[in-house]
Specification:
Layout (H helix, E strand, L loop, with lengths): L1 E8 L7 E10 L2 E7 H7 L5 E3 L4 E4 L1 E6 L15 H13 L4 H17 L2 E9 L5 H11 L2 E8 L20 H15 L2 H4 L1 E7 L7 H14 L3 E5 L3 H11 L3 H7 L7 E5 L5 H10 L2 E4 L1 H6 L7 H7 L3 E3 L12 H16 L7 H8 L1 H6 L17 E4 L12 H8 L5 E6 L2 E5 L2 E2 L4 H19 L12
Length: about 450
């Protein structure tokens, strides 16, 4: 399969952009990237797909996703974090069945694929969601996934000492053993599209002893870890009061820092802590929409990048962002830091595209396989159509992608050499069925939870 007559943003080491280029794919690997004239001469007998001058980029990589929250999109808008968690999100998720979680995962994956995300890192799959069903949804959809299974042993949240909704509470044995069983069963499945991680809760939800145990197992099994950290000031206050440490010193004490870990949000860090994150090779997932919507604060991404931290990008979940469109997330990441720093040069479009591609691949330990369009890498790519009013003219395709485009401009998506979206149509799932199932299951979850979400303004029936 060859995509030809394209503008290719390779994201290779030289960040080359090839006009009138082509990409040749055999099985699930890229075997050539060059000018179209060269590729067509070399592979004249191969199936050619003329994309008519469209733009091709590496598949986007979302390093922080909550699959189960797609079904409760918009459930807790314009609320403080504590009310958001205790009155809505935990209560709704605590009333899920396995089937609800499967439906939500399919909805989330369908949205991600249709908007150009080919790989994602799930943060915390609770036992009640049914890991097998989620893994099955990954297999069916064709997406590439790192699934973090929840690890916890304490039913509270940071310094607030809030007790979790009963349906969300898990013991050490249930959570830790559940992740290890899932790793034994699913890691490397779906032609290595599916990896299993630890997805630990924040300090206050996990004892120091369990963090150390999980970190040791991760080293022994060569497993990876993701965790929210420093999302809100309460996280920092709790760790200081409970352990008399800074957030990052505590994380180091319990074995969490290092190249095997992706820490999410990381808003409430000091410059000294950022230095340690950089020195240990720990990765960071930046989630600007979620941090803004929940008024958590703003991660100091420019300083992190200046110190050498690998920063990737994430959308978070349906109640904290309301969409899983990483292209939209790129724009906010680019403009937010300009406003905060009063420096229009501080976060160029090119830097943000790196965060959504090669940096994300590096965070997941997959940069030798995905994240750029290079010979030998797996064939994960996205074809974008900029032949629209809002993307015309387009003198710089990177600028157009980051500042003007949205996920609706995605035309075609390939994951692992397989076309999963063609001309805007999802091929691996019936989109109408996905929507219908979500509309059926969501009201039942709200009913079981005893929650009724309505507009603030009066409705006239």
């Amino acid at each position: 399969m060859i995509f030809t007559n394209a503008t290719i943003i390779t994201m290779n080491a030289y960040r080359e952009i090839i006009h009138k280029g082509a990409i040749a794919i055999r099985d699930n690997r890229i075997i050539a990237v060059d000018k179209a004239s060269v590729i067509q001469e070399r592979f004249e007998d191969d199936h050619m797909i003329d994309v008519g001058g469209k733009v091709i980029i590496p598949g986007l990589i979302d390093t922080h996703v909550h699959l189960a929250q797609a079904l409760i999109r918009g459930c807790a808008d314009d609320m403080s974090l504590i009310q958001w968690l205790c009155d809505r999100v935990w209560v709704l998720q605590g009333n899920y069945t396995h089937e609800d979680a499967y439906v939500s995962a399919r909805l989330c994956m369908a949205e991600m694929l249709r908007s150009g995300t080919t790989t994602f890192l799930e943060a915390m799959l609770a036992h009640r969601y049914g890991f097998d069903g989620i893994a099955q949804a990954v297999e069916e959809s064709g997406i590439r996934a790192c699934l973090g299974g929840i690890v916890m042993d304490t039913a509270s949240y940071a310094s607030e000492r809030l007790v979790m909704y009963p349906g969300m509470i898990e013991t050490r044995e249930m959570s830790l053993s559940g992740v290890l069983e899932a790793h034994d069963k699913w890691h490397g499945k779906a032609n290595d599209r599916l990896h299993v991680w630890f997805g630990a809760r924040t300090p206050g939800g996990v004892s120091a002893e369990l963090y150390r145990e999980m970190s040791q197992i991760a080293r022994e099994r060569n497993m990876r870890i993701t965790m929210h950290l420093g999302e809100v000031e309460a996280d920092r206050t709790f760790v200081m009061n409970e352990y008399h440490r800074s957030l990052i010193d505590f994380a180091e004490d319990v074995g969490l820092l290092g190249p095997q870990t992706v820490l999410v949000h990381m808003v409430w860090l000091t410059p000294e802590e950022i230095e340690k994150v950089a020195a240990t090779g720990t990765h960071v997932s930046h989630n600007p929409s979620s941090n803004c919507k929940l008024a958590s604060g703003i991660c100091n991404v420019p300083l992190m990048q200046a110190k050498g931290v690998n920063v990737a990008l994430g959308c978070d979940g349906g109640p904290s962002n309301n969409d899983y469109d990483l292209i939209r997330e790129m724009k906010l990441a680019a403009i937010l830091h300009k406003a905060v720093s009063l420096d229009p040069l501080i976060m160029p479009a090119e830097t943000v595209l790196e965060m959504a591609t090669i940096n994300g691949a590096r965070a997941l330990g997959l940069d030798r396989e995905i994240g750029s369009l290079e010979v030998g890498k797996k064939a994960d790519l996205v074809v974008l159509d900029f032949n629209h009013l809002h993307t015309t003219p387009s003198p710089n395709p990177v600028s157009t992608l980051v500042y003007a485009a949205t996920g609706s401009d995605v035309d075609t998506v390939v994951v692992d050499g397989r076309m999963v979206v063609e001309h805007g149509k999802l091929l691996t799932m019936n989109e109408d069925e996905v929507i219908e199932q979500a509309r059926k299951h969501a009201p039942e979850v709200y009913r079981r939870a005893g929650i009724d979400v309505k507009p603030r303004w009066p409705i006239i029936e």
